[in-house]
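In this section we walk through a basic example: taking a raw amino acid sequence and producing a predicted 3D structure, encoded as discrete structure tokens. The instruction is simple. Fold the sequence below.
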Amino acid sequence: MKFDFFDFFSQVLMITFVVIMLMMLIEFLNVKTRGKLLALMKKHPGAQIWIGALLGLIPGCIGIFAVVSLYTHRLVTFGVLLAAAVTSFGDEAFFMISLIPKQTFILVLVLFGIAIITGYIADWLSRKRNVIQPAEQDDAFKIHPYDHCTTHAHKGKYIFAKGFMYRILTIVAIGLFIIGTLTGYLSHNHVIADNFSIHTHAESCQPNQTTTDHNHIHHTHVHSENDHSPFTGENLVFLIVAFFTFILLLTVNNHFFEEHLWNHVIRRHFLKIFIWVFAITLFIKIAGLFVDVEVLFYQRWGKMILLLFALLIALLPESGPNLIVLFLFMDGVIPFSTLIANSVLQEGHGGLLLIAEKSKDFFKLKLIKFVIALLIGLLGLYFGF
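The resulting token sequence is shown next.
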């Protein structure tokens, strides 16, 4: 198999840029709405499970961090924590929204439904709501002034600000991303690991193709002339995201750019995301040379192994490793039910905070979610979804 490093590297770079840009936009929205959902939870205790599930859906770890903090301060029930942990799937949310938006929408609906049901069942089984709202904890969630972060008025000439060069560097990078996408140098293909391309019997009977089996998996990738078209639906979405990010970079004040966009998003996440995407996509490419994907894809026991693998990864309180499950789904190696199971069981880095504060509750939470995830995965394998 011929390895096209330029194509591979452009794929990794595009995914990394799209995720980072989406993270910057979400960061802006989070700052603008920060504290409002938390205040709503205190005002309407009966709706806490619903609000907790919504907080968990916030891409990244901000939402689950907030709920875990509220739970460790005994401000919400275990049912609220469970609901948020079910809907939260860490930094993978940014990748899913960027790369598979339609499937992500369905996944969100499924996770939200599971979260609401399991959250109420958990609280009903406990038969009590040990929710204490001590006044001394109120200052634990104070936010620095709203106007200080989100005002668009530049006081003085920000050209002399400390982060000016970083802002220019980021603007140029986004500009190059837009140019690269428009010219086709940067484009996204669903088949990241081209040696995992799966063809049905009908496809394998096309001219110039050979098969030795009713359902044969070819270890080659056929490039169509539209592979790098800049006008695909996904590339248009990427360009829209890039456009709004570009406008955001031009309009936010110095504090927001330096503290939130540069320090919190770019410096903390760009290199880590790039390394994870590079390593995992390269691993999938190499693994495809040695793994009999046909056996894993068409045999139930093979799918069972992949399901257990996806659940094992999800047990870790870490976001990065779960990307391999997403990429395997995108390549058609695992079914949608396995992706759902992985998403239910993981909660990004939110588990780290819970381990530090209440380790017993962390293992209790993981056990409950493991049972739910395993049941979903098995039902998916049985019914074929």
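Looking at the output, two observations stand out. The chain has 18 helices and no strands. Residues 129-160, 190-227 have pLDDT under 50 and may be disordered. In the next section we compare this with other chains.
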